[in-house]
Amino acid sequence: MLFYRDYGGFTGGHLKVWDYFNHVKFSHSYAPFIYFTPQSSWEQNNPWLNLDKTFLLSEPLVNPDLIFMEGLDWHFLDEHYKNNSHIPIINLIQHVRHAYPDNPRYSFLKYRAIRICVSSEIKTYLEETHQVNGELFVIPCGLDLSELPQPLDWEQKDCDILICALKEPILGQQLKKELEKAEKKVELLTAQLSRAEYLQKLNSAKMTVFLPNQQEGEGFYLPALEGMALGTLVICPDCIGNRSFCLSWYNCIRPEYRVESLLNAIQQALQYPRSKIREILTQAKQTANEHNLLKERQAFLEIIDNIRQIW
Hints:
alpha/beta; seven-stranded parallel β-sheet; four-stranded parallel β-sheet; 14% strand; elongated
């Protein structure tokens, strides 16, 4: 199976393609090979950094058995594969923006592919475009729980509120300023850390406010699930793709995406009795366990085992 990557730096999207690459490695039917663009970065966070070099290609395979696409990978695909390819093409769709007519990804929907959506919300958005050529499947994002640190007990967590604002730094600053008036220990993240450092920050926080992309929304939003797995009380506003697993007042708090709503949710959470917090954290942990990588792998391998019938 041929994979493509234009790796400019670590993102959740790259991490999920890495997961799918490993799903193929695990299968008995196919072996994954990957072509990186010449400008791709090989910094420390690149998941493929220590991969056996036999899986790396200097040029894309001419006649692979299967092709795996994601994001803007269609730009690198040879033109003769784009129209009625005899080689099955699997297209992982990780964002609702594929359904936005002004987004470059929208134009790819006309190409025949077996599309795997990481949330049911994405599938709904794509269906409403009436542009999709090929089958649509939903495989919810799975989380690799084995790569997470051991969750700290509540009493060991030394940060009252962590604000993850890489995508909304101005809003993050605004929230931090308001919350510090209440004399809480608040930490703000607006720059990317190493994967290990980032996960440790989540693990050390009693409460984490996640600020996903407000303008475009998100396709799933894995960081909220990571927070649930690490026992931080998750506050994550509605961003479309998190609706199926961020269940407000059950396993997290999912306010409207407005400053006032976020501040109200935080203030409410700060006044929660410890028993209520424990209940939410228990249910959050259960949600994270249900979204495990094994389930994702089994669902994907079932598709590629039946690829010829589907194509």
